[in-house]
Amino acid sequence: MDAAFTEEQDEIRRTLRELLHKRCGPDEVKAAVRTPPGYDRALWRQLAGQLGLPGLALPAAYGGAGCGPTELALACEETGRVLLPSPLIATAALAAPLILALGTQGQREGLLPKLATGELTATLAVPGGQLATALALTGPNAGDWAGGGRAGGIQAGARAGGWRLYGEAAQVLDGHTADVLLVAAHTGGFARSRTLVFLVRANTPGLVRTRQTAMDETRPQARIELRDVAAELLGEGEGERGDGAVAGVLAATGAGAAAALAAEAVGAADAALARTVEYVQAREQFGRPVGAFQAVQHRLADLYVAVQAARSAAYYAAWSAGGARPGGRRTAEPGAASLALAQALETLRKVAAEAIQLHGGIGFTWEHDAHLYFKRAACDELLLGPVHRLRARAAEEAGLFADVNGAPEASGVREAVDA
After folding, report:
1. Domains by residue range for the chain, with CATH
2. Pick from 36, 40, 69, 343: most CB atoms within 10 A?
């Protein structure tokens, strides 16, 4: 791995940071999240149209920039720095890679160029709050997480006129505004049970979308209800692709998404730490700046080391995920994605908590800007974690725990971690 960034990668970071510094301060974020879509549509059009943000990791043949997970992670680090509310993660890190890997040529040509320019947004809908499981971040995704015939999942049935979906999914990122939904659904009954991915357009009859109230308003989520909704299978006919192929693509998508989310969390942690350092240098207590006290300096130094370690893990996970893309010469490092995400989420939680503490009495007021980072840390771990499961999954993938015969003791690891 070459740890040095190219001029192009540095330019992506610099340009995006300058734009977001001008257009996305805390007051602008608070105003944007309280609009019906939950983000600034004008800013999103600028980020997509002028900078090509959602198409960074897409091939040039489909209107993208032809870059990879590393460039997307660098962009996400900058958007995380300002806690930008936008459909970037849902569109670029979740939906677009699935369409690229599973879609037919017609589906790719019809959707990816519009996603790359921001004309369309998309997201992945997974039932039962099982996003981390579906992406193989907290455990194997070969099970019946999509429904398995139980209530609460999403079921798909083939009829003469095509596929129909029914069921519901909560905690769908940007699900209330996405133009295209990629819905993971269970089909085949008991004999041919498997999970497939379907395309559902926003204006399809029977689709009900409700924005959910969440503690972190910068990460809008929705509840999706599918009431006998017409859907299009993503990819070729159902007989040509089994459950294992879909699970493998979801896992590969999870590796890239985890790297982007880890970088985003690192950016948020770095910004929260910088704000805290600035405050303790200006705030005086007992006739001297708070930051002059050695105990405060030690706490800040520990946070700095944690942020740098999380950043290194996120960059490595992005570099590793790039090898798993079509045409890549490497395979993704086992466990790198889950471990990087765990490190980043834990670091953001620690930095946000210390930021509130070190801001003193004003930091404990709910309206203070420090709470934006605290809310992001808490809700991201609920959505993508918990951290101990991410680490357990990384250990399983890397084969760190094995019995005398060399077989991984995955169940034993999970039982020990859960205890």
Report:
1. 7-121 (1.10.540.10), 124-242 (2.40.110.10), 244-418 (1.20.140.10)
2. 69
Kindly state the average pLDDT of the residues 380-385: 91
Query: Does the structure show a pLDDT above 50 at 228?
Result: yes
Token duo for residue 83: 């806690």
pTM of the predicted model, to two decimals?
0.91
Cβ 187 vs Cβ 156: under 8 Å: yes
- Residue 23 scores a pLDDT above 80: yes
In total, the chain counts a number of residues equal to 419
